[in-house]
Structures are given as C-alpha cells and as structure tokens.
Design a protein that fits this description.
Blueprint: E1 15-25, H1 30-39, E2 43-54, E3 63-65, H2 67-79, E4 86-89, H3 96-107, E5 112-115, E6 120-121, E7 124-125, H4 131-141, E8 146-147, H5 151-158, H6 173-185, E9 190-197, E10 202-209, E11 214-220, H7 229-242, H8 247-265, H9 271-274, H10 282-286
Parallel strand pairs: 1-2, 1-4, 4-5, 5-8
Antiparallel strand pairs: 2-3, 6-7, 9-10, 10-11
Helix pairs in contact: 1-7, 2-3, 3-4, 5-6, 7-8
Length: 290
C-alpha cells in the first residue's frame, strides 16, 4: 500500500493523545509511547488510564485507577483549546474509560484513531480485565482507523472462542485473512493482526484495509517473550505513520525495530522481567523524519 495515513506538513509538529497506563518499573505503555513518538517529532500528550508500580507479571503490583479524574482532565484540555492530530489508546483500567476515549473522538473528529486493544495474549485475558471491560474494548475497536490486535484479542473482539493454549501457531494465511476481514467488517479501517507463529523461524503480521489491501510482513522469530513489545510495535507503527510513511513502510519499520529491540534487551540483566529495552535504538525512530 503506497498511500499515507497522515500527511506531515512542513515544520508542523503533530500532537498525539496517548491514552495508556503509566508503569513505574518494567518498560511498557506510556514509558514506551512517549519517547518513541517524541523521537518521531510528535508532541505526546499523555492521558494516564492507570498508575502501576510495575507491570502485572511482577508479584504484589499496585494499581491506581484514574477513571474518576479523566472527565475533568479532558475538559481542561478543551477549555484551553488543545488540538490533537491522533488519539492512540492502549491499556484501559475500566469500561468507563472507553467513554472518555469517545469524548476525545468527539472533541477531535479529524484525529486519526489508533486502537491497540491491549487485553490478552496467548489465550489468556490480563488479570485486570473484566468481561465488561473486554466488551467495551471490542466496541472501541470497531471505530479504529488503525487496529492492532494479536490473535487472542481478535477473537475477543469478534466474540469467537479462544483456546487456553492458543499461541497463534499454525494459523493459515486464509484464516488470518478471515480474521482481518471480519474485523474490518465490524468497522475498523486498517487492521494489523500481530504475532502469527508457525514454527518456521518467522513471526508474521497480516495487514488488511477497508479498500481491500491484504499483505504479510514478517521478521525472525526470537524464542523468548518480553513485556512491552506490543506497546513498542504499535508506537513504532504510529511513529512512522505520523512521520508521513506509507502503511507498508510503517508496518515493516515497526516489526524491524521491535525485533532489534528484543536483541538489545536480551543482553541486559534479568531481561525477561524488566521489559523491552529500546533506548540505544531510538535514533532509528528519529531517522524517519529524514
């Protein structure tokens, strides 16, 4: 696909409302979105959906739900005339937060709507996600300009059953296309179905659009899991889009950057607990503007 989803104009710095949680330890969410999008020349305006002491794989994590403050928080933006070019949402803390994202859509009807439906992986729903929150996330996904689910999240959005051990292995091209087409039929304009594994040394992402485009972008599969890679992937994809790159270029950049960051991470102590490390590579994001 050669078209761009965002037209970068001259020296203008676009503003992105990043609707994610803030995690104190374990790199993910706003800790990834802010530096990545900033490196791509964006003014990142955080909307914190929750405050975490660490990501939830650590025992004894603490969470503060910010739902009650968000209405006043966004009203204050409106009162001072904040302009937003993209609304990028990820992890949510309560179903009511979907209403606040809809408030953002109403405030900024021309803004690009990017939904990373962070709620599950490998057949498991994250511990803070209730059935009501999953249903609300599925509704939000239907209005996305760019939607980036993994297989488990795609099944939840579509109301299809998921197996407890489903990690995405051996999903055919035809099944991937069926899922992408079904998500587009629900209202998403562009879908990036992430993380298809077939045991052949590759990890695949399938991309489809409402205009009928469908293609695959793949990378080397690395045999370890890191927290925050999904946040990094979507943040890099959006960084490339906001830099004026085409969808195909953006998806390829996101996959390559995430792959390289996982290799950097593997050289750090206790790397599988601390989250994805990308800091030494951030210059590659800035180079998108060249």
């Amino acid at each position: 696909m050669t078209e761009t989803l965002y037209q970068r104009e001259g020296a203008y710095i676009p503003r992105v409302a990043a609707v994610h949680d803030l995690c104190g330890y374990g790199k993910c969410s706003l800790g990834i979105a802010i530096p990545t999008l900033s490196a791509a020349g964006c003014d990142v305006c955080p909307v914190p959906t929750g405050l975490f002491s660490s990501h939830t794989a650590f025992p004894g994590w603490y969470m503060h739900d910010t739902t009650e403050m968000l209405s006043d928080y966004l009203a204050a933006w409106k009162n001072i005339g904040v302009e937003i070019d993209a609304v990028y949402s990820g992890f949510l803390g309560a179903p009511e937060q979907v209403d606040r994202i809809r408030d953002l859509y109403a405030m900024y009807p021309k803004a690009l709507r990017v939904v990373d439906p962070v709620m599950a992986d490998h057949g498991k729903v994250y511990p803070t996600y209730t059935p009501e929150l999953c249903a609300a996330m599925a509704e939000l996904a239907a209005g996305a300009d760019i939607l980036t689910p993994n297989l488990t999240e795609a099944a939840i959005i579509l109301g299809e059953p998921i197996g407890e051990d489903w990690g995405g292995e051996n999903i055919s091209d035809e099944e991937a296309k069926r899922l992408v087409d079904a998500l587009i039929a629900k209202g998403a304009k562009t879908v990036v179905l992430k993380g298809i594994q077939r045991g052949d040394g590759l990890i695949r992402n399938f991309v489809g659009t409402a205009e009928g485009d469908f293609f695959e972008v793949n990378n080397e599969f690395l045999p370890y899991m890191l927290h925050g890679t999904g946040d990094l992937y979507c943040s890099c994809l959006l960084a490339a889009v906001m830099a004026g790159r085409t969808l195909r270029e953006a998806v390829a950049f996101a996959g390559d950057f995430t792959h390289d960051a996982m290799i950097v991470s593997s050289k750090q102590p206790e790397f599988q607990a601390r989250g994805v490390s990308f800091e030494p590579l951030i210059g590659k994001v800035a180079a998108l503007l060249q």
